Amino acid sequence: MAETKVVAKPKARVLVVDDEPSARSGLEKLLRQEGYAVDVAADGPSALLIAADRPPDVVVTDLKMPKMDGIELLQKLRATFQVVPVIVVTAFGEVSTAVQAMRAGADDYLTKPVDFDALTIAIERAIERTNLRLEAEELRRKLREREGEGFEGLIGSSPALQKVYRVARQVAPARATVLITGESGTGKGELARAIHNKSPRAGGPFITLHCAALAESLLESELFGHEKGSFTGADKRRLGRFEQANGGTLFLDEVGEIPAATQVKLLRVLQERTFERVGGNDPIEVDVRLVAATNRDLAKDVQDGRFREDLYYRLNVVHIEMPPLRMRGGDVLLLAEHFLRRFAAENKKRIDGYSDRARAKLLAHRWPGNVRELENAVERAVVLCEGTVLDEDDLPIDVAPLPRGAVRVPGATMAEIERFAILATLEATNGSTTKAAEMLDISVRTIQYRLHEYGIAAKGKGSG
Predict the structure, then answer these.
(1) pTM, full prediction
(2) Does the pLDDT of residue 401 top 70, yes or no?
(3) pLDDT, tens digit, 9 for 90 and up, residues 261-308
(4) In 323-367, where does DSSP find H-type helix?
(5) Which DSSP helix (H) or strand (E) runs through 119?
(6) How far apart are CA 292 and CA 249, in angstroms?
(7) Is the peptide bond before 401 cis (omega within 30 degrees of 0)?
(8) Residue 64 near residue 90 (C-beta atoms within 8 A)
(9) If DSSP codes are grouped into helix, strand and coil, which group holds residue 161?
(10) C-alpha neighbours within 13 Å on the C-beta side of residue 214
(11) What would the pLDDT profile of 65-106 be if each residue is shown by its tens digit?
(12) 274-275 and 284-285 as β-strands: parallel, antiparallel, unpaired?
């Protein structure tokens, strides 16, 4: 029997960039002998194309090259691959050149002729530092989640969002259907993906469908697929979203917009886990976990006869309500900082943060469009910002004047601030003392006692 040849896995992928063919081929040969996978490029533009196709673990680049020098290449690599280490090699061993390279973000600096032992040590050291940075970031992410500051990329530490995290962590390992409700722009889709990523199905597909964006005939085909010739234009068989999501999760956004006839077919899939394609007769079995979202009041739609009651209960096995941004307090600033870093990097601008007046403006706005509105506002502000600090005038939002009974801080007593906080929170929760107490992190009894003090305890402020 023939002997099986075992191919060793490369230590790492190194991209060598040098305009001198002999130097390039020499480094390639030596690095391959050391067990590295090696790509080579004769100039900066070629190196960027190779890096986009096969991202390197380390880049070793000459400093003085035509078309694009090593410093410019380094800067472009940093914009695309923020953690890839770059080692600069040059025949010009001047201190000023070395300093320039290190300031631009080089991880190490070697002079020609290259001492190969020194180069391999520099490569190993760079890879080790990168791995340590990635491990530290992962540990920080896990610590933030453990402390309640986030869940699989979701940002926020408000009590309202803590409740979402707790339920999401509990339901993620299960197969149960999840119904996510909340206003538009609150992040229902992001929560659905987070639940999938924390589930045993994380290795499977995560398929989404926006139910309100399609006509009834197209929606049925999108969900269940169709056979060739089943209708005009069906020139070949098409797999629907349920088949595409087999072994994973299907996220149905705006599920409340599904027409009545399609609701019947969706109910059957949830009950029997089988369906037929449009124009087909053969039953197809699927293993799909369903997560649905809506900004509608489905319970009221059931009462009004617009949504099937049996389907509602099938979808609503576990219910998670995403809170609007106006009920998340300081999360506004956490999200604003996150979006600022992201859009500053995308637009290659240096913006160090927000001024105090900009922060106050962010907190004062009610954000009717929720997280989506905040994201759009920060992106526009970053694009138009001309300085290194984003000020209130850069933010494209208008803050409404204080409502009647509101207080300004500073300038109000603690009793006045407490009164406004309780009444404003009750208004935001439609009078629910239970929800208001949860948001304010105080007891229901305290709210009821304060309402009695204010002389408005009998104004319908129930504990629903």
Answers:
(1) 0.59
(2) no
(3) 899 999 999 998 888 888 778 888 889 999 999 999 999 999 999 999
(4) 331-346, 356-364
(5) helix 116-146
(6) 10
(7) no
(8) yes
(9) helix
(10) 18
(11) 888 888 888 888 876 666 788 998 877 656 677 677 777 778
(12) antiparallel
